[in-house]
Design goal:
By secondary structure, this protein is an alpha+beta fold. The chain is built from 4 helices and 7 strands, in the order βααβββαβαββ. It has a domain of 96 residues: Aminopeptidase (3-Layer(aba) Sandwich), CATH 3.40.630.30. A hairpin with a 2-residue loop joins β3 and β4. The radius of gyration is 15 Å and the shape is globular.
């Protein structure tokens, strides 16, 4: 019998959570995907709401969102390799969607490799492919 994975997502409120989130982003974006740190940590860090996901008590995922003139922009979704495919990414997206206003558009810039994941969660592609940090992306908007 296999142990069930317990996923918990919460708002980041402590220095310990901030550090855990930063370490996850370092591993996923800076080390794994070779995103320069000066691009990863931008001017929106302070104005964004940040969340942290844990799997069986260990921090394994993080994300942020912020209000823009176009609606709520979901950003910086990162899940450690060891926790992928276990529902952490979906839990992060669902947590954000539960927090934001339904009447306001939710959108994100998905890495092309993650488009199917976000499509499954109710987002649809719009516009063409563009590059951020040398990685192909496509804008996606939550279907109403």
């Amino acid at each position: 019998m296999s142990a069930q994975n317990l996923i918990k997502v919460s708002l980041i409120q402590s220095d310990e959570d901030i550090l855990a989130s930063r370490l996850i982003r370092e591993e996923v974006f800076v080390m794994e995907q070779q995103v320069p740190p000066e691009i990863e940590y931008d001017e929106f860090e302070e104005s964004s709401t940040h969340i942290l996901a844990s799997l069986n008590g260990l921090p394994v995922g993080t994300a942020r969102w912020r209000k823009t003139q176009h609606g709520q922009k979901l950003e910086r979704f990162a899940v450690l390799k060891s926790a992928r495919g276990k529902g952490v990414g979906e839990a992060l997206v669902q947590f954000v969607l539960d927090q934001i206003e339904d009447y306001e558009p939710a959108y994100l810039n998905s890495q092309v490799s993650a488009i199917a994941f976000y499509t499954r969660l109710g987002f649809e592609e719009t516009g063409g492919i563009f590059y951020e940090a040398g990685i192909p992306h496509r804008k996606m908007i939550r279907k109403s």
